[in-house]
Specification:
By secondary structure, the protein is of the alpha/beta class. It has 11 helices and 8 strands. Bound molecules: flavin-adenine dinucleotide. The site of flavin-adenine dinucleotide has 24 residues, from strand 3, strand 4, helix 5, helix 6 and strand 6.
Length: 278
Amino acid sequence: MKLSEIYSTDKTVISYEVFPPKSEPKNLLKEIRILAKHKPAFVSLTYGAGGNENKSFSLLKNIKDTGINIMPHFTCITSCMESVDNGINKLIEIGAENILALRGDIPENTELQCHDFKHANELVKFIKEKTNMSIGVAGYPEGHIESPDLKTDIEYLKKKVDAGADAIFTQLFFENSFFYDFINRVRDAGITIPVIAGIMPVISQNQVKKMTSMANISIPDKLKKGLEKYKENDLVEFGIEFAAEQCENLLKNGVKGLHFYTLNKAYSTDKILNKIKI
Ligand code: FAD
């Protein structure tokens, strides 16, 4: 089922993000099967810069075989047009109806092979012209890290939407007010497609440090205090409570979709979904 159809319902849609594991995929597939009981509309699989593409394609097939729809991520900044074309053809062969079209991060200290795609809007246009896939794009409630300000970032987001995107998936956020402000700005810019909230359960101090060093993500006081107070399992349980409260508030405010950054583990996302009422 395509994103355009998935988000046409009045009910909040659940989906999960996973990444290609370093080890055999069977453990990840076990975690996905646990989370299947919450009836996700799809599982999205990240696309690693320099990752093993063939491994990703076979994992996507494995996920599809569990009976769950897929949304492969696809980045373009390090690729030439021919390899983008081949990659997309392979995704279509696998049966992917949806794709998350991304620029990707510009690799440091590496000369780019090609300059065929400079920004995600160019990839969206390419996919739209070539395929019938439904296209998701990334959005940044606190602004993309390279962007001078949120207003400029949303002007570029509009280019992705005008090129043919069907839904916006946000970077994770811990403070819902940024998401609500983002929605208002996006709607003021004339963007009408669904905006899906990215939710990441906190599981460790290192995870939060890593995320906040790579992107504009604010840590509210309550989370700061929890990170100081709790360690290991207690922090995981605190992270579940925190994310469940965040989701309850989003649901109360009519969020179209909750996209969980599962970190390849069912435990936290499963408990959050058991706590909230969709
Ligand atoms: P763009 O939309 O191209 O934006 C990048 C920057 O350029 C922004 O600052 C924007 O304001 C600006 N910009 C946009 N268009 C233009 C234009 N036409 N002219 C000038 N400036 C412009 N990374 C991965 O490597 N693999 C993944 O699987 C992955 N999954 C992700 C999933 C989600 C939901 C999100 C939010 C991010 C994900 N990322 C992933 C990270 C993403 O690749 C980075 O944030 C990257 O730096 C930007 O990608 P983008 O598609 O948002 O780029």
